[in-house]
Amino acid sequence: MNRKELFENIKRKKSFLCVGLDADVKKIPQYLLKEKDPIFTFNKQIIDATADLCVAYKPNLAFYESLGIDGWKAFEKTVKYIKENYSDQFIIADAKRGDIGNTSELYARSFFEHLDIDSVTVAPYMGEDSVKPFLLYPNKWVIVLGLTSNKGSHDFQFTTDSNGERLFEKVLRVSKEWASEDQIMFVVGATQGKLFEDVRRIVPNHFLLVPGVGAQGGSLREVVEYGINSQCGLLVNSSRQIIYAGQDENFAALSREQALKVQEEMKSLLEMKNLI
Amino acid sequence: MNRKELFENIKRKKSFLCVGLDADVKKIPQYLLKEKDPIFTFNKQIIDATADLCVAYKPNLAFYESLGIDGWKAFEKTVKYIKENYSDQFIIADAKRGDIGNTSELYARSFFEHLDIDSVTVAPYMGEDSVKPFLLYPNKWVIVLGLTSNKGSHDFQFTTDSNGERLFEKVLRVSKEWASEDQIMFVVGATQGKLFEDVRRIVPNHFLLVPGVGAQGGSLREVVEYGINSQCGLLVNSSRQIIYAGQDENFAALSREQALKVQEEMKSLLEMKNLI
Questions:
Q1: CB contact under 8 A, B152 and A99
Q2: A96, A170, A261, A273: which is the annotated catalytic residue?
Q3: How many CA atoms, within 13 angstroms, populate the side-chain half-sphere of residue A139?
Q4: Between 3.40.50.720, 1.10.357.10, 3.20.20.140, 3.20.20.70, what CATH number should domain A3-272 receive?
Q5: Start and end of every Orotidine 5'-phosphate decarboxylase domain (chains A, B) (predicted)?
Q6: What residue of A is the nearest CA neighbor of B131?
């Protein structure tokens, strides 16, 4: 999926919501545990209940890997289910990978060839050759960690060099040269508020993947205020607030209600910005 | 395993070699592909042939994940095999993980509880709260990327702040406070040569995991010259040079020959430094 197609989906659905499929066996409705594959059963119901309200799904690999082989099976089944039933969805493997070239090559093979996922999140610390192997796939995306949503983002990402440039700014400036705007996005946490202006000065046209709305406390209105561009350029993720809305048989309907609330706010923000 | 026990193993085996189990189906002896589980069969033979010459094994997760479910099975079987047959080996899951707290928690659960692995490599970009969950396990280790062995290490790790401190130095200085020397190690690439002196100024006592000897061109002698401390403080990894020494039925014997060469050099270096 390219940038234009993604924007078309956003306009059609009046939504730039990404639903984070962070299914934790300890947090999903416990009656599902009697199912053969509780995580997949959970995901399937969440997906069916929200697919018309969002443009992307982001399974975070940690939640699947923590279950070992069963987790990997659930992950692969989830990806396959989305691709077969909702082919307009942009799938993000939230993996935060990054290793020396020959190793990143294998991760790229895993996500892009083996699973045909649209994009993968990567950590920038090891530099260009750790990311390049992911960029060899023309229709696939790399989402580089820029400015993250967590408290620890202040440990290193704000380190200012002798020219007054902060590390997250350098990461954006340097890594945006590694490929076109149709292959690179950046993670910028919703909790960073007004800093979206600084981000947009460096990457005005790129799509940003924005975690941190919802459970982490970021404001959607602020993200749009400082971060939206003429092609929307935002995929705002919500995980816990949507997927854990209920604990009983009606959990998927409650998830839908939460997703709908977010989508309606997104719709009015897109209208306000004259994008739809 | 604590630092003292690790040093005891190093003295007993006269080796600080870590063998990287980066088994790629495209590179292992092709006659193994007719086996039911080629990767595990390969690993098992490499392990049996080298266990008396090394103190650690480092499976890189990418190589296993690239094979999906079969890869995870091979990874788990490999870890289990080492634990059951060579319980003195220090096992490193080379995963380079790092995510927001609740996610890192799940990775920690996966590696330390589910698999009972000794240590995991983590990326520092997201800061303290992305690493803390791994440090809640008293006898387990976190190995933080400090100064990596690849060309891309120059993209961000050498960025100098207004006080003249380079990013990798800040990462070492800040993250060494997150736990004791019995829980944190750092990755420092063998290709960085004399920079080991700068690393040792900040973390004189910590163990360093050193990739980049062998296929990547780093020098073992230089690493020891600038990086060794009174408890050795080095785990030097070699992957490709050892595990792909042969392509026929005698591959494991050839791997042993390569490992033995490295171990003999290590022995003479340990003697030279009066550590054995």
A1: no
A2: A96
A3: 11
A4: 3.20.20.70
A5: 16-255
A6: A152
